[in-house]
Automatic annotation (TrEMBL), chain A:
It comes from Nocardioides cavernae. One of its GO terms (molecular function) is L-phenylalanine transmembrane transporter activity. It is found in: Cell membrane. Its main location: membrane. Keywords: Amino-acid transport, Cell inner membrane, Cell membrane, Membrane, Transmembrane, Transmembrane helix, Transport. This is Branched-chain amino acid transport system permease protein. One of its GO terms (cellular component) is plasma membrane. It is a multi-pass membrane protein.
UniProtKB/TrEMBL annotation, chain B:
Its main location: membrane. GO terms for cellular component: plasma membrane. The chain crosses the membrane at residues 20-38, 58-79, 86-104, 124-148, 211-229, 260-277, 289-322, 334-353. It is a multi-pass membrane protein. Keywords: Cell membrane, Membrane, Transmembrane, Transmembrane helix. It comes from Nocardioides cavernae. Pfam families: BPD_transp_2. It is found in: Cell membrane. InterPro entries: ABC_transp_permease, LivM-like. GO terms for molecular function: branched-chain amino acid transmembrane transporter activity. This is Branched-chain amino acid transport system permease protein. The lineage of its organism: Bacteria, Bacillati, Actinomycetota, Actinomycetes, Propionibacteriales.
UniProtKB/TrEMBL annotation, chain C:
It comes from Nocardioides cavernae. CDD domains: ABC_Mj1267_LivG_branched (cd03219). It comes from the Bacteria. Gene3D superfamilies: P-loop containing nucleotide triphosphate hydrolases. This is Branched-chain amino acid transport system ATP-binding protein. Keywords: ATP-binding, Nucleotide-binding, Transport. GO terms for molecular function: ATP binding; ATP hydrolysis activity; L-isoleucine transmembrane transporter activity; L-phenylalanine transmembrane transporter activity; L-valine transmembrane transporter activity. Transmembrane segments: none annotated. The keyword GTP-binding does not apply. GO terms for biological process: D-alanine transmembrane transport; L-alanine transport; L-isoleucine import across plasma membrane; L-valine import across plasma membrane.
Length: 321, 376, 317
């Protein structure tokens, strides 16, 4: 137990936690939206994120982006990678919805079946990158960790009270919060967003009122997937790696974050993500990094015991709760 | 859906057969199960997994199948009957294996500590017979500790909390070197006592069929007990909770109590299966208990047909046996497994051997859908 | 998903099975008090949700052995009142007492053990269990077998002569070792369930899954399941919803016979004719307030009630 290390570097560790938490929060949005509308934990969402990181790698490889390019090229490559990741992730999410969940919905299968199917989809996606694509194309696919070029090199932009603010950090935090703000506005203000909220509150009434439920479901999968794509790019910028099973833990943490904040609640995802990110970093400093994952779940259980609906409560329908 | 109806018919025929016939059939089946390790008559011998030199030892595969069947019966109580999605079942399995390793192995830090403290002789360890209650109790207590705060929560949260629990057990086993031996694991895990034959212990690493028979005997006992529960006040309470928890409460069913029981029973069976596994391996290490194993366990119950023992047994058999039989495709195993999971769920959501209750329900829904379509 | 499925079977098609009344003594319940005593007391209950006053100083009693009707136009607070009585809501002010125990804060299954059972307006059976099993869940509420008891059957009971097997080794064994409490409870439960199914008139389809039963059968199954828990007070939430006149007539008879078994009955109903026909006393709610209380005759003549309730063209029928 090393509280001194935590106290002495509190600002730095908090910043670390916020960075990590921003990525959790973005992935958590996908869980939260799907849950809000379908009351379903989409277990394949972690892999939706994973596919995004591969899309980033693929884009960089395709345009030959490497470290040490000019500013213009860096921006172009990053934006292109962002687009590719969002498309790939959203596409994967949509494919899972169409191929696996929709037939089950049609059959009126019980919730448990959806969960199992989600787990199955997750395994299929993981193995696609770990095995199928390896056999077809060879490396970089396979069961090893792959480096992603650090196209955006880390430099210190400015200093606040002895705390170095780097460009990557700033991009991650600002980017994540901006995306969430955009999504929140979309759900609360736009006509499509109204449909989402209506279905989340009461699917039957919503469909009586002419809201196309199938379209809303597609929309939440696409939006959640796109957010996971953004998270995938930010993750690549921060950690410069990907792997076929990278999604599992991120997904688990993100789901924990969603539950922490109050599942179904968009702002809860942000709060839960940041909370979890900071808690993990603190815990890894106080004890050791091996216990990071344990902390996440202990925190979750404690919060759920005292606030069974999460920090902000569950409400995609009443997004302003 | 015609397969379902035929499955129903087999079931109905079974129900309507005279009691004596049923007993004889059952006894034959059990006898055949005990005979399986020696199965050598063509063409049946093709089911063996050791036909090629790289194949797995047939009796060992049978043993693993039966251990996973115990797991499936236990998890079926939790998922199939009480309707609680437990994604951390591997945690209980690991606890069982580690219990016997920690207390039964003379080289575990725990036994060494006890031996030092009380001045016991070198090589002292808790006898195998006492390890069984310890393992079951550890898993059961863990189940209660995990269940007590979480079973009051909504069902979806249970999935994530149990998932975390499974990981916590594994991470703890890996990181607390001083107690669990860390990543290196623990060797010298004890085996059940027995007479020496040909200068070897009765339960050794070579004669795997003895392990299989031991596990099979335990499995039969467990099925007997599980059926007692199913056809009782307790089993009905579980079903009622699964169907409509609020209505069950209004009818006087103490929901939390019965859910906790389901959880505890599931946990202790997981622990028992883990104990058998650890004892046969004579070696326990944290990487044997990855979270993916939990998914495999859940898949066994659900693919076979959630809520009925025969389905759970079949699921455990298929998902353990097939990968061993087709070992040459070892790299494709997880992929095939994932595809199978999705395909079975999408095409046959009721599982391969649905409980007859469920099968009827799915028939009905299909009829309703058809009638609705006809109306339009 | 678990909606009752009766869209295709019209209620009128059902064959009404005449109840067999010969077994009443077997399913009648024991009383813990005298007829006419106060069983449940709604003591000046006010219930507010935010700014909305759902119940305002509602005050009435249910006496042992009576059939009490609780009526009122839509939104009058009937269901709220009902939920408060079964422990779903806690009153903002005032108390609800059952046999002297305060209800608020007691868990639903404990309330059932105290002796209150209910049915649901929108049927909530256990759809994938048979009719028989549904009722047995109710019987189980009064049984004691625990998990170890079921597994190992160590709790033995000395059987009475009629519980002993007729002959053979089993009889001798049972004499020496007794019979496990679980086995006896299971037998008693099955017997009682069957009798209750007969009592409500649906015994012919005892083995069928609840979800497959026609609507009218489902309604009656709910009543049987509630009766199985041996409640001193049984609350029926709109039991006649969706019934045709002949079935309503049957239901009235059933409600009277339920009272004859020793249960006190609370009926929440929309249908005036049924309530006037079957109840001993009626409490009328409107806008969360009690506007009248009395015998059916008194209530039917009460101008306030006529204005509030009967005057509504929708409900006049």
């Amino acid at each position: 137990m090393d509280f001194d290390a935590l106290i002495s570097g509190l600002d730095r560790h908090t910043l670390d936690g916020i960075t990590r938490g921003s990525i959790y929060a973005l992935v958590a949005l996908g869980y939260t939206m799907v849950y809000g509308v379908m009351k379903l934990i989409n277990f394949a969402h972690s892999e939706v994120f994973m596919v995004g990181t591969w899309a980033v790698l693929g884009t960089y490889t395709a345009i030959g982006a490497t470290a040490g390019m000019g500013v213009g090229m860096v921006i172009a490559a990053t934006l292109l990678a962002l687009l590719a990741a969002m498309l790939a992730s959203a596409g994967t999410a949509l494919a899972v919805e169409r191929i696996a969940y929709r037939p089950l919905r049609k059959k009126g299968a019980p919730p448990l079946i959806f969960l199992i199917t989600g787990i199955g989809c997750s395994i299929v996606l993981v193995e696609t990158f770990g095995q199928v694509l390896r056999v077809i194309f060879g490396p970089p696919f396979g069961r090893v960790t792959v480096n992603i070029p650090s196209v955006l090199e880390t430099t210190t932009l400015f200093e606040i009270g002895g705390l170095n603010i780097t460009n990557t950090r700033l991009l991650i935090i600002v980017g994540a919060i901006a995306m969430m703000f955009a999504l929140d506005t979309f759900v609360n203000k736009s006509r499509l967003g109204r449909g989402v909220r209506a279905v989340a509150q009461d699917p039957d009434t919503a469909s009586l009122m002419g809201v196309n439920q199938e379209r809303v479901i597609m929309l939440v999968f696409v939006l959640g997937g796109a957010m996971a794509g953004v998270a995938a790019l930010l993750y690549s910028i921060q950690y410069d790696i990907t792997k076929f099973d990278i999604g599992f833990f991120i997904g688990l943490k993100a789901f924990t974050a969603a539950v922490l904040g109050g599942i179904g609640n968009l702002r809860g995802a942000l709060v839960g993500g940041l909370f979890l990110g900071i808690a993990e970093v603190y815990a890894s400093i106080i004890w050791s990094s091996e216990w990071t994952n344990v902390t996440a779940f202990v925190v979750l259980v404690i919060i759920l015991m005292f606030r069974p609906t999460g920090l902000l409560g569950e409400s995609l329908g009443k997004a302003r709760a | 859906m015609s397969q379902i109806t035929s499955a129903l018919r087999i079931g109905d025929r079974w129900d309507h057969a005279p009691k004596a016939v049923r007993w004889v059939a059952l006894l034959l089946l059990v006898a055949f199960a005990y005979y399986l390790p020696y199965l050598n008559i063509l063409p049946f011998a093709y089911v063996r997994t050791d036909l090629t030199s790289s194949g797995s030892d047939w009796a060992s595969v049978l043993f693993l199948v039966v251990v996973y069947m115990i797991v499936a019966v236990g998890l079926n109580v939790v998922i199939g009957l009480a309707g609680l999605l437990d994604l951390g079942y591997v945690g209980f399995y690991a606890l069982g294996a580690y219990s016997i390793a920690l207390f039964g192995s003379p080289s575990s830090p725990v036994t060494q500590l006890i031996a030092d403290r009380f001045g016991l002789s070198e090589g002292w360890a808790v006898p195998f017979a006492f390890c069984i209650p310890i393992a079951i109790l550890m898993a059961l207590v863990a189940g209660v500790i995990l269940g007590a705060p979480t079973l009051r929560l909504r069902g979806d949260y249970l999935a994530i909390v149990t998932l975390g629990f499974g990981e916590i057990i594994r991470i703890t086993a890996r990181n607390v070197d001083g107690v669990t031996g860390g990543a290196a694991g623990i060797t010298n895990v004890p085996t059940p006592p027995g007479p020496e034959i040909d200068g070897r212990a009765f339960f050794n690493t070579i004669d795997a069929e003895r392990w299989y028979w031991l596990a099979l005997t335990i499995l039969i006992l467990i099925i007997f007990l599980a059926r007692r529960l199913e056809n009782s006040r307790v089993g009905r309470a579980w079903l009622a909770i699964r169907e409509d928890e609020d209505a069950a409460a209004v009818m006087g069913v103490a929901g939390f109590k019965f859910k906790l029981w389901a959880f505890a029973i599931g946990a202790s069976l997981g622990g028992l299966a883990g104990l058998l596994f650890g004892s046969k391996q004579q070696y326990v290490e944290p990487n044997a208990f990855m979270v993916q194993l939990s998914f495999l366990f859940v898949a066994m119950v659900v693919i076979g047909g959630s809520g009925n023992i025969v389905g759970a047994l079949l699921g455990a058999f298929l998902l353990t046996y097939l990968p061993e039989r087709f070992r040459e495709f070892v790299d494709w195993r997880p992929f095939a497994f994932g595809v199978a999971m999705v395909a079975v769920m999408v095409l046959r959501p009721q599982g391969l051997v649905p409980s007859r209750r469920r099968a009827r329900e799915f028939e009905d829904r299909k009829q309703e859908a058809e009638e609705a379509a006809a109306d339009v | 998903m678990s909606e009752p499925t009766s869209s295709t079977s019209t209620v009128a098609e059902e064959q009404v099975v005449l109840p067999d009344t010969s077994d009443h003594d077997k399913i009648a319940i024991e009383q813990s008090g005298k007829q006419g005593d106060v069983l449940l007391e709604v003591d000046h209950v006010t219930l507010r949700f935010g700014g909305v006053v759902a119940l305002n100083d509602v005050d009435f009693q249910i006496r042992r052995g009576e059939i009490l009707g609780l009526i009122g136009p839509n939104g009058a607070g009937k269901t709220t009142c009902f939920n408060a009585m079964t422990g779903v809501y806690t009153p903002t002010d005032g108390k609800i007492r059952f046999k002297g125990h305060e209800i608020a804060g007691i868990k639903p299954h404990k309330i059932n053990h105290l002796g209150i059972a209910r049915t649901f307006q929108n049927i909530r059976l256990f759809p994938e269990m048979s009719a028989m099993e549904n009722v047995m869940v109710g019987c189980d509420a009064r049984h004691k077998s625990s998990v170890p008891g079921v597994l190992f059957r160590l709790v033995r009971v000395r059987p009475s002569e009629e519980e002993l097997p007729a002959s053979g080794i089993r009889r001798s064994l049972a004499k020496v070792f007794g019979i496990s409490r679980h086995t006896l409870e299971e037998r008693a439960g099955r017997k009682r369930s069957m009798e209750l199914l007969r009592f409500v008139g649906i015994a012919d389809r005892a083995g069928e899954l609840a979800r497959n039963l026609p609507y009218g059968y489902q309604r009656r199954l709910e009543i049987a399941r509630a009766l199985a828990t041996e409640p001193e007070l049984i609350c029926l939430d709109e039991p006649a919803a969706g019934f045709n006149p002949a079935e309503k007539e049957d239901l009235m008879g059933l409600i009277r016979r339920i009272r004859d078994l020793g249960h006190t009955v609370l009926v929440i109903e929309h249908d005036m004719k049924l309530v006037l026909g079957v109840t001993d006393r009626i409490v009328v709610l409107e806008f969360g307030q009690k506007i009248a209380e009395g015998t059916p005759d008194e209530v039917a003549r009460n101008p306030k009630v006529i204005a509030a309730y009967l005057g509504e063209p929708d409900d006049a029928a």
